[in-house]
Amino acid sequence: MEELLIVTTGGTIDKVYFDDKSDFQVGEPQIGRILEELGVAFRFRVIPIIRKDSLHIDDADRELLRATIAAQPTRHVLVTHGTDTMVETAKALASLDGRTIVLTGALNPARFRGSDAEFNIGTAVGAVQSLAAGVYIAMNGRIWDPLKVRKNVSANRFEAA
């Protein structure tokens, strides 16, 4: 892997909570800080394009993401994204040939102790380096085909569709 392109869209992974009523905002992307703290042995570049909860990501945002990735020469791409509409976004990226694109996120903010963010990022980094070209989702310790997975909201995890 010559370089890992990371494109961030917001989501729970980057959320910052302000009070007991769970008032939050999507903050600065956390993935660059996480990878630097872990001392990874590869080059990466972070392009933050939007800061939204994924429930607010629309087709225009998905097109911006697709166009941003298409404009870069990098073959290996990791996208951080909110979990609620991650599957829809992954499907929208399917037309990008010749690249390995892995979407990941977190069910708890990266700033929280016990967050799944670092684990999901690690899974996604391994996947993006080893999988054939295509679009994948890395969540809950598994690599998923976007056409065969869904988020089970009540169980708060991804599962086979």
UniProtKB/TrEMBL annotation:
Domain named L-asparaginase N-terminal: residues: 4-156
Record keyword Hydrolase present: yes
Molecular function as annotated in GO: asparaginase activity
Organism (species): Luteimonas padinae
Keyword Ribosomal protein applies: no
InterPro entries per the UniProt record, alphabetical: Asp/glu_Ase-like_sf, Asparaginase/glutaminase-like, L-asparaginase_N, L-asparaginase_N_sf
Record key words, sorted: Hydrolase
Designated name of the protein: Asparaginase domain-containing protein
Lineage per the UniProt record: Bacteria, Pseudomonadati, Pseudomonadota, Gammaproteobacteria, Lysobacterales
